[in-house]
Amino acid sequence: MPRVILLNPFVKHYAGSVFDLNEAVYPSDWDVDERNLEKQSRFANKVYLLPDAGNGRSAELSVQDTTLCPEEIFTNIHIKNGPCRITAVKEHPMDPENIQLITTRLLTVQLEGTLYPLNNNILLQSTGEKKFDTIEIYNSLSNQIIQELDGFSDTKTLNFQEAHPGFYRVLLFNSQMPVLELSLFKNFPLVVSPIKYTNKFQCIPTVW
């Protein structure tokens, strides 16, 4: 699994963001016709499938907009100390062409604080009479469920302090039906930027 540094701002992610992603693939508009493969391979620009472009939607990120992150960057760094960022709160089921963002009708979602570990805690507060029976947390990169929690009718805190940096989805259920979906990204603790004309990198703590 490659660990990459974002060289240029991409949708809602800033340059210097670090991602663990699956191996690069050919873009979705790639022509799979064998007669065209050789011609296309000369101009191939592979992409990483980004589960969340920072707005709750997946996107294709060109490999050319990234560089591999040296392993030593995070040596002796507590990698789980990076802050979480809530990227979207959506009603479920959702229309990909018209995602409705929920602000106060059913739920208020916020970080519990701005500093670690509070910036790894997601505070959920119900704003209506609807009770959420069950909560499921998914790793968006693998699309696998990693945790199932009891629901709530008032407030609930989701703790991501021990979660690895990456992309996550939280589904909230009512009467066994998903009614809300939260998207969030847990950052690496450092923003990493290549220094031009050198093999060195500038590293600063991630704030958000």
Structure described in brief:
The chain has 208 residues and is mostly beta strands. The protein folds into two domains: 3-75 and 189-205, no CATH class; 79-186, Immunoglobulin-like (Sandwich), CATH 2.60.40.
Taken as a percent bin, the fraction of beta residues is 35-45%
Count of DSSP-assigned helices: 1
The whole-angstrom Rg is 19 Å
Regions with little confidence, pLDDT below 50 for 5+ residues: 94-104
CATH fold description of the largest domain: Immunoglobulin-like
Task: Considering the chains and any ligands shown, give keywords for the structure.
208 residues, mainly beta, Immunoglobulin-like, five-stranded antiparallel sheet, three-stranded antiparallel sheet, globular
Describe this structure in words.
By secondary structure, the chain is mainly beta. It has 2 domains: 3-75 and 189-205, no CATH class; 79-186, Immunoglobulin-like, CATH 2.60.40.3080. 4% of the residues lie in helices and 42% in strands. It contains 1 helix and 15 strands. The strands form 5 sheets. Strands 6-13-12-9-10 form a 5-stranded antiparallel beta sheet, with no helix packed on it. Strand 14 and strand 15 form a beta hairpin. It is globular, with a radius of gyration of 19 Å. The model is unreliable at 94-104 (pLDDT under 50).
